[in-house]
Specification:
By secondary structure, the chain is an alpha/beta fold. Among the domains are: 1-79, Rna Polymerase Sigma Factor, Chain: A, CATH 1.10.1740; 199-314, Roll (Nuclear Transport Factor 2, Chain: A). Helices cover 46% and strands 14% of the residues. The protein has helices spanning 2-12, 19-30, 33-49, 60-75, 112-115, 121-129, 133-139, 144-155, 160-167, 171-186, 199-214, 217-223, 242-249, 308-314, and strands at 81-82, 105-106, 224-231, 238-240, 260-263, 272-278, 284-295, 298-305. A hairpin with a 2-residue loop joins strand 7 and strand 8.
């Protein structure tokens, strides 16, 4: 008995070994890196407090996933993450369409290194396959338990019997929930597969940074897909089409002229940059975390996350650039 107690204590002392994969799981469930980190920490606390009931019959990993799932299901009772595209059609690129709804909780990006440490290339590859914003956005449309089933079966690659045990339900219920979840995702434009950047893509992104900093209309036009889209959470307005995007940039958004654009940690496995607007008092101040989707050699989607006070420190970006 003493030996079992010592072994159990040792096992619970290694909880942090599971932090990355649990953070990835909770992020897909909750759509926020901050909520995911809170959920994982809560799961660790609950696991430690209930360690006397851990009998070793289930693997530590399964035990933690069970607890983390319950934490996420509890958190999802009070909030739902969404994006501007979920709220209605694209709007005209005019300033009067800018609106910040108070009742909305927005989907947020996560630095890839929090969920797939660079020391493990296999983890990075797995995370890239199912962490892109479009896929996580689509997950938020699923009921909470369906979401858990789909992630555990199709992303974490658990057997139906394992998921049934974790959720305290039957294999038939798990298979039914998975079928419904897959049918819902099939109606969206989510793509779970990663699209690794080619050398040509990286060169194109370098040209984009240069063109944006110069605010070169001709160069930017050549780098953006004609059917591109743009959103700027927490504003609920989103734009569809290169023409409307550039109309905004060179109209109401002209204050971005003179910005500096700095590459940073990848968000959701996608090209990510910190954008700083000119500061009247000198230097540059944070404006947006730009997360880009690249397809067919051009930029197909811009998501400008404007909550820089929270996101820039998370992505290792300074809160001011000196001249």
């Amino acid at each position: 008995m003493a030996q079992a107690t010592i072994s159990g204590a040792h096992a619970f002392g290694e909880l942090d070994n599971y932090r990355s994969e649990l953070t990835a799981y909770c992020y897909r469930m909750l759509g926020s890196p901050f909520d995911a980190e809170d959920a994982v920490q809560d799961a660790f606390v609950r696991a430690w407090r209930s360690r006397d009931r851990f009998e070793g019959r289930a693997a530590m990993r399964s035990w933690l996933y069970r607890i983390a799932t319950n934490v996420c299901l509890d958190m999802l009772k009070s909030k739902k993450r969404t994006t501007p595209m979920d709220l209605g059609p694209a709007r005209e690129p005019v300033e009067s369409n800018l609106n910040i709804p108070s009742e909305i909780t927005w989907l947020e990006p996560i630095p890839l290194h929090l969920i797939a440490p660079e020391r493990d290339p296999a983890e990075v590859a797995v995370a890239n396959e199912s962490i892109r914003l479009a896929f996580v956005r689509a997950l938020q449309h699923l009921p909470a338990r369906q979401r858990a089933v789909l992630i555990l079966r199709d992303v974490v690659d658990w057997q139906a019997s394992e998921v049934a045990e974790l959720l305290n339900t039957s294999v038939a219920s798990v298979n039914s929930a998975l079928q419904r979840a897959r049918a819902t995702l099939a109606k969206t434009d989510a793509e779970a597969g990663a699209r690794p950047l080619s050398d040509a893509d990286r060169a194109m992104l370098e040209r984009y940074v240069s063109a944006f900093e110069r605010y070169d209309l001709t160069a930017l036009t050549s780098l953006i897909r004609e059917d591109a889209s743009q959103s700027m959470p927490p504003f609920d307005m989103w734009l569809s089409g290169r023409e409307d995007i550039l109309t905004w940039w060179f109209g109401p958004g002209i204050g971005c002229q003179g910005s500096r654009v700095i590459p940073t940690f990848s968000a959701n496995g996608m090209p990510t940059f910190g954008q700083y607007k000119p500061d009247p008092e000198g230097g540059h101040t944070p404006w947006a975390l730009q997360v880009l989707d690249v397809s067919d050699g051009k930029i197909g989607e811009f998501t400008f996350f404007l909550d820089t006070a929270r996101l820039f420190p998370l992505f290792g970006l300074p809160l001011h650039l000196d001249p």
